[in-house]
Design goal:
The protein has about 150 residues and is α+β, with helices and mostly antiparallel strands. The chain has one domain: START domain (Alpha-D-Glucose-1,6-Bisphosphate, Chain A, domain 4), CATH 3.30.530.20. About 25% of the residues lie in helices and about 50% in strands. The chain contains three helices and seven strands; from the N terminus they run βααββββββα. β3 (about 55-60) and β4 form a beta hairpin. It is globular, with a radius of gyration of 15 Å.
Length: about 150
């Protein structure tokens, strides 16, 4: 059994893909107001939001408990409409040695697809794959889409 893995979740959205990308890239502090049942807070810990190297601190609710994460914005790719976050500290590192999250938006005509990809290395073979987290990202995406469609 491998300790390293990768999970992918794709969600088709009706709202503008560019708006979704801009939210994660430059305005992540607005995410909690769009999806308060899953993400309660996002604060800039270091650097300037919207730039590679900035560090964000998140409070979120996952698997029935309050959790925290400190993330580094590792990459922003405007051409691919993607943002990459690396977990530096927090609850996920109790289970995983490394945890990297990519959020990517594809635009094809009127169809827009949000793809969440996580790459991880478990601390040991007893650690589950992060499937419930993929469900979490789907829920966050749908909450944000619902908000944008109502606006």
């Amino acid at each position: 059994m491998s300790l390293s893995g990768k999970r992918v979740a794709q969600i088709e959205i009706k709202s503008e893909g560019d708006v979704f990308h801009e939210l994660w890239k430059g305005n992540p502090h607005q995410v909690p107001s769009l999806t308060p049942t899953t993400i309660q807070k996002c604060q800039t810990h270091d650097g300037e939001v919207g730039t590679v190297g900035s560090v964000l601190f998140w409070n979120y609710f996952h698997d029935g408990k309050d959790c925290v994460a400190k993330t580094l914005i590792k990459d922003i790719n405007e051409d691919k409409k993607s943002v990459t976050f690396e977990i530096l500290e927090g609850d996920l590192l109790k289970l995983y040695k490394t945890f990297v999250i990519h959020v990517h938006v594809d635009k094809h005509g009127i169809n827009h697809m949000v793809t969440w990809t996580v790459e991880y290395e478990k601390l040991n073979t007893n650690v589950p794959d992060p499937d419930s987290l993929m469900d979490f990202y789907k829920m966050v995406t749908k909450d944000i889409e619902t908000h944008h469609l109502q606006s």
